[in-house]
Every structure is written in structure tokens, then in C-alpha cells.
Fold these 3 entries.
Entry 1:
Amino acid sequence: MAVYTQVSAEALSAFLARYDAGQLISAKGIAEGVENSNYLVDTTTARFILTLYEKRVAAGDLPFFLALLDHLAAKGLPVPPAIKDRQGVEIQELAGRPACLIQFLTGVSLSHPTPAQALAAAEAMGAMHRAVADFPLNRANSMGHASWRPLFEQCGRDLDRIEPGLHDAMGEALDAVLDGWDAQALDACVIHADLFPDNVLVLGDRVTGLIDFYFACTDYRVYDLAVMHSAWSFDASGETYAPAIGAALVEGYERHFPLTGQDRAAFARLAMGACLRFALSRAWDWLNTPADALVTRKDPLAYWRRYIAYRDGKAGL
Ligand SMILES: Nc1ncnc2c1ncn2[C@@H]1O[C@H](COP(=O)(O)OP(=O)(O)O)[C@@H](O)[C@H]1O
Ligand SMILES: N[C@@H](CCOP(=O)(O)O)C(=O)O
């Protein structure tokens, strides 16, 4: 369960009093998610998401994320902007954390997407990449390729506690993937960088929400598709690849951005990089999250297996 910071009813009522948002009826911690604390808040006038920003979200990056949400929402994309208080302020402090009241979107988070849902979600990602063409801000990818080796070194030999031999195998994988990464002549733009099925809300096959933009950054555009491909096209253990989902993602994305020969040639390396990024952040969390923490740790090996599938040509375009 991702509720790292507890908020008292008194503190939340005082927080809500800054907004034209009615009076507090109830607030429930949301189990899903691993990065931030999220509450479902009902008031006498509406339902909201309250997010308190934790570990990997730097307060200084919040203006970028919120400006991006406002930009995308203004273009009609189904993203949830932050609510402004009566003074026009979006970023507040609550229980010692930076906090925002966010528009609630209907729909359910996906856990087992169908090809039709994958197609719709990748089409929505393509629409997002179109919509950022005139977004004026940039943000370096704090979880991008330059961060992978330092994170690997921080994990160190403890990686072998996750699986014997993992340290050396990951070291070799990083050597292979990072060699020439910077030199790829690929388009860059603001990307989501974490568009997993649980960050897409749907009703049936219709996308009603793209959420959790707190890793959004400027990076290779097709890397965003590679992240999505790695997250959507495998079962939870990372052992079984679902080519029909992979194909649906590409079909949906190509409705906005047909893949070029260069995109296709780069795709396996981008997907392997995505796998290392999530294997490493999960490994770090696995090794550093107390066993009794109120959060479900995600399995790093489920991502390492995906890496092997792309490396060995068992998954891909
Ligand atoms: N704007 C929103 N509208 C509806 N539900 C949301 C919204 N934002 C988050 N949620 C719900 O909260 C869960 C956790 O949110 P998420 O942003 O993924 O958390 P984290 O940043 O911790 O990963 C989501 O899976 C979804 O169920
Ligand atoms: N999607 C990442 C972790 C980030 O969690 P999220 O809940 O913010 O998407 C993973 O699965 O490792």
C-alpha cells in the first residue's frame, strides 16, 4: 500500500478550506502505486485525489509536472490537472510533504490489458507526444541512461542477494546497452517515461485517464514506446511475452507516429535500456524497503527476465 505519510482529518479539513472544494466527507488511502502517498478524498461537492510527494519526486520538479498536466488537459487529453486554491496556488504543503489536490478521473487501472486496450493506450501516448510539440519546458530524465550505472553501483554486490550472479550479468548488460546510447539519432520530446498499465485508466476499450506523470522528462520519443512495450507485453513475472499486445501497441502508436527505419533499428536497445532502468530501481527498492513497510515491493527479476527476452530476440517489434 502506498501511503507513506498519514494525514489527520483535522489537517485535511484545514487544507481543503483553502479551496472552493466543499467540506471533507471521507479520505481513504489508495493501495495502488509505490512512489507517492495518494488518498481518495470525497467532499460535499466532488471527489478528488490528494497526492503527497515522496522519495523520487523532487519538489523543484513539481512546477514542470503541473504545467505539463495543464498543457495536456488544455489540449483535450484525458490527464488530471491539479486544482488551484482560492489564491491560485497548486502546490501546497501538508503533513510536512509537498501536496496537490488533483482532479479525479473515472475509469479503472488496468492489470491485464487486452490488445484493444493496448492499442487505445498507445494511441493516447502518440496523441500526448503530438500535444507536447508546443510545450515550452524541458526536464532532464532523472531516471535516464546516465543514472543507471550509478544506481547499479549503489546496489553493488547486494544484487547477488536477489539472484546469484545478477551483479555481473547486469554489469555486462549495462556495458552493452550504454555503449553508443547518446549517439542515437532519434527524435526527442517530453515523454511520460512510466506509462505502465496501472497508469492508464479505461472504461472498456476507451482511455479515460493517463496519470502519474511524475517521471515525465525530455528523452527519446520512441524510448517512451519501449517503456510501454516492456511494461504491457509480458505477464507479471516477465516470463511470458504476449506478441499480440506488443503488435497492438505499435499499431496504436503508429496512428500518430509511424516508426522510421531508425526507430525500428533502435527499438531493441531502447527496450533493453527500459528493462535495466526498471530492474535497477526495483532492485534498489527491494534491497532498501523494510519488509514491514506499507508498500508492495515490485520484483526486479520480472524486469531482468524482460531484458533477456529483448536481448535474445524473443520479444520486440
Ligand atoms: N487523477 C486520478 N483519478 C483517479 N484515480 C487516480 C488518479 N490519480 C491516481 N489515481 C489512483 O491512484 C493510484 C495510484 O496513483 P499513482 O499516481 O500511480 O501513484 P504513485 O505515484 O505512487 O505510483 C492509481 O493506480 C489510481 O488508481
Ligand atoms: N512503474 C514502476 C514503478 C513506478 O511506480 P508507479 O506506481 O509510479 O508507476 C515499476 O513498475 O517498477
Entry 2:
Amino acid sequence: MSLSESETQARLLAQALPFMQRYENKTIVVKYGGHAMGNAELGKAFASDIALLKQSGVNPIVVHGGGPQIGAMLSKMGIESKFEGGLRVTDQKTVEIVEMVLAGSINKEIVALINQTGEWAIGLCGKDGNMVFAEKAKKTVVDPDSNIERILDLGFVGEVVEVDRTLIDLLAKSEMIPVIAPVAPGRDGHTYNINADTFAGAIAGALNATRLLFLTDVPGVLDKNGQLIKELSVAEARALIKDGTISGGMIPKVETCIDAIKAGVQGVVILNGKTAHSVLLEIFTEHGAGTLIVP
Ligand SMILES: Nc1ncnc2c1ncn2[C@@H]1O[C@H](COP(=O)(O)OP(=O)(O)O)[C@@H](O)[C@H]1O
Ligand SMILES: CC(=O)N[C@@H](CCC(=O)OP(=O)(O)O)C(=O)O
């Protein structure tokens, strides 16, 4: 017999009790990826996990993506999605749609789900309260044929250059949960589209977060046999990138984890957002749920 959602929550809460003190008053940044958003039930379970963190005395900050949802909107408008080096090539029209989808519909959907739990979430992007400034990304790739490095022109794709934590700190004091979209202004007056993983890493670094969680579509970092690796040091993670065990979209994610650890985040976890209540299972159980990357 399967448990109802309220029975599941009561059971999770009972399991969580012994672990609650560990993270009291600590900041946990949760990156909620577009692939992890899945269906309505998963969305509700995610919102209730964030609410439960807040009720346990944790200071949760949500940074979300929405790559597939941006792709769907662009295609509705007859615009083809183009990626280079894992980043969306973003012209003026595209950045307008990116901002509309990320800072508009997705952001408000997540805020509404958290608010339905009785907690107070507030939706923001880097523009609000001068929280984040970006500049044009300087990304290079090595051409596999000629072995020559070239600079990519990705248009309005940005990288974070400044984070001002004033607004986030104020919200935490007011018991509000910030939900942040990875869109930020440049000092040049343009709006930039920033990869949600790198944006979350920059926010977690600026806040000296205790944990940064990446919710994705696999259980964590898998070894050559497809088995979950429970804990990885920065050196081990680099070796797995070098020997090809970590590939594709997992490379920039793990590189962001390494950067976040260097920036002062104490532990970064990659876990499956497609498993209901994965945030609580990670934070409030002895062995966690995904791959913990540590210094
Ligand atoms: N060693 C590995 N362990 C787990 N996933 C890996 C590994 N190497 C490559 N991947 C791929 O990385 C993907 C996750 O990265 P990505 O698709 O960019 O995630 P997201 O869209 O959640 O940001 C996985 O679905 C998997 O296909
Ligand atoms: C520059 C760049 O590629 N930005 C991403 C921002 C959204 C994102 O990163 O969403 P996920 O976390 O769901 O992948 C994009 O336009 O798709």
C-alpha cells in the first residue's frame, strides 16, 4: 500500500528530527534545474521540502533554471535553440524571452508552490536590489580538428562578476525564502542570461553557504559501472573529468561545484530532483541522497 503525501511528510519529519540541529541557522542554496521540475506532484514535494527546511531553522535559498521551458517557448515563437559549449547562444530577442520565462512564469510558479505550504517565498532575479551584476561571458573552446582555441561569441550570455548579499540577508531576517532566476544586468545596461548552475555557485559562494544542492536528472555522479559515488574530493572529481567518467553536462556542473568549494561553500551535493523529497532525504538523513563533493 502506498503512503499518502501527508503520511510521507509525517514520516520524513520524524526521520529528520535528529538532524535538524546540524543545519540550524545555516544557509543552504538549492539549485532547482529545469529537468528536475518534472510534474505537479514533484513540484509540490519540492516546495514542501523547502518549507520544511525553513521551519527547521535552516535558511534556504532557491536558484532555479528552466532550460527546457525556455526551449519550448522559443520553439513556439519559431526561434531555434542553439548551444555552444553547453550555453544557449542568446541574441536580443532570445534574452527577452529568457527573462520572460525565467524571471516571469517559472519564478512565479515556484514562489506560488512554496507559498501554498504557508511559508513566504519572494521571487527575484539578479536585477532586484542590485543583487547580482554580470558581464559578457568570455568562454573559449578548442577546435578538435585544428586544436586551436577560439573565443565563443554567445551574445548576451553573462558570467557573474558581483554579488551583493544585502537583500538576501534582509529577506532571511524577515523569514522570507528568496527564489532567484539567473538573469542579471551588466554595468553596460544590457540584460544577461546566465547558466543556472554557475549562477547558483556564485550565490552560494557569496553567502558562504553550508551546502549547495544541485537537483538534476540522475542520482549523482556515477562511476564507470553506473554506480553512485557517495563522496568525491575535488582532486578525485578532477581525475574523473580527465579520464572521461564525467562527461557532457556533468562537466560544467562538477566544475561549478569545485569553484563553489574554492569560494568557501563547505559541501556541494549533486542529487536526483526526479525523486520526490530528495532535498529532505539529502539534508536530514545520515548518509544523504546524492554525491557529496568536499574539499
Ligand atoms: N559520470 C556521470 N555521472 C552522472 N551523470 C553524468 C556523468 N557523465 C555525464 N553525465 C550526464 O550529465 C547529465 C546531467 O547534466 P545536465 O543534463 O547538464 O543536467 P541539468 O539539466 O540538470 O543541469 C546526466 O543526465 C548524464 O547524462
Ligand atoms: C546561458 C544559458 O545557457 N542559460 C540557460 C539558463 C537556464 C538554465 O541554466 O536552466 P537549467 O538549469 O534548467 O539548465 C538557458 O538559457 O537555458
Entry 3:
Amino acid sequence: MSHLLNLQRLTKYIGTTTQTMLFSGVEAQVEQGERIAVIGASGQGKSTLLRILSLLDSPDEGEMEWKGVSYRRCDPRVWRMKITYVAQHPVMLPGSVEDNLRMVHSLHKVPYDQALAQRLLERSGLSALDIQKRASDLSGGEKQRIALIRSMMLRPEALLLDEVTASLDPANADLVEQLLTEWSDQEGTTLIWVTHDLKQARSFSTTTWYMGSQTLLERQPTALFFSRPDTEAARRFITQSIESDKEEPCPSLH
Ligand SMILES: Nc1ncnc2c1ncn2[C@@H]1O[C@H](COP(=O)(O)OP(=O)(O)OP(=O)(O)O)[C@@H](O)[C@H]1O
């Protein structure tokens, strides 16, 4: 049986005049229904890796297979229907919120399920939102959730989530996390989710990928990773993140 996704020695360089290595030797296998948290310091290439996985960017070296078939042999549009990227700062299509939800269905010739749209809006804390409102007028957090719902409704086999709760308050971030966890359980959807929130990473994921030292340095079951990381770099990263969370949330004024 082939893996859902198989990454072999992926390497990415950045820059136009001088090429700098962003990461190299990224090796990983992903199974159906797995929930993966992708963590690591800023600038390690987490978003770039997600964009490569959805063929919005390309690797400079290495191989990537979906169910045993190389990305080189797939139509990128077909690939993206199966493995869909949800951006941190999503682009809204022209028109209303409802137009945004319906339009992707007509583009992909998939019937629109109004009851599902309503359920997902309610479950993500948007039950009071007027869906006739212009999508461009939404707040950052509303846009994030509409973009997420828009992608979920097309039922890709894997969702690539790029800090999709970063603009939400903690209560709404929790709602979205619960929704995605249940969705993954019920639909068998694989989640690969970049987050800087280690509490969130620990609660939703089954596996953690830690990006550091210009590669995917660790990939482990989440409980094991957080209790006994293999590398000193990951240990330091976890400790520093916990320390910064403990900092006084509202320093006293002098
Ligand atoms: N196409 C590109 N051309 C030039 N630089 C790029 C390109 N794509 C990414 N980069 C650079 O690569 C680095 C890694 O970016 P990326 O957003 O993937 O990191 P990240 O780990 O997701 O960071 P953060 O946690 O801050 O979101 C950044 O310095 C970014 O500017």
C-alpha cells in the first residue's frame, strides 16, 4: 500500500541573484486521516513547504508522490482538488460571502450543499454573519473562516492549513480547532497544520513535524515529541515557547 503522500529529499532554494538554501532533505510520509502539526521558528520554511505540497510552489530537488504517483505526472489543478492549501491571509473572490461559497462549487462543478454551509458557519462562530455582506468587507478572522469553509466544502482528502486561526480570538480559535478535529475524524481528512500555538499543536495533532536547522528535523507522535524530543534544538524551541507563554500578559505600567 502506498502512502497518501510521500516526500523524498525535498529541497528548496530562495533568492533571485544569489541562491540561499531554505531547507533540504525533507523526508516524510503522510497517511490518510493523520493530523500533523508543523511547528518551528519563523523563517524555517513551513509556509513554503505547505505551498510546495499543494503545487503552488515547486521543489528544486526531490520527489513528492500522491498515492504512489509523482507530482510531475499530475495536473496541478487535479492535485489541488485533493490536497488544498488554506492561506493565512486568504483572497476573497468578488461579491458576497455566499457568492464566495457558491462560486468555488460552480468552478469545480460540484453541487452546493446549503445545509452544510450553514452548519460550518455556525460551528466556526459565524452564525450571526450576514452572508449577503460583501466578502471584501469582512474582518481578517472572518475571511480566514470563510476561506476555510470554502475549502472544506469541496471535501479535499488533505487540508494544508497555514496559521488558519492566527487572526482569531482564543474562543473562536478553539471552535475552529474542534470543528477541524471532528471533520478529520468523520470525513477521514488529513490535516497538515502550521501553527505557532504549541497548546493548539498538542491538542489537535497526532503527529508533530518540527522544522529546524534547514530541514524537517523531527517527526514524531505528538505526545512523544513534547515529552521527549530527539534533538537539543527542538528541546530548546519547546522550552522557549513555554517560557514566552508564561510571560506576564499585561505588564504593569510605571
Ligand atoms: N519565493 C520566494 N522568494 C524569496 N524568498 C522567499 C520565497 N518564499 C519564501 N521566501 C523566504 O523564505 C523564508 C521562509 O519563509 P516561510 O514563510 O516559508 O517561513 P515560515 O517558517 O512559514 O515563517 P513564519 O513562521 O514566520 O510564517 C522567508 O525568509 C521568506 O521571505
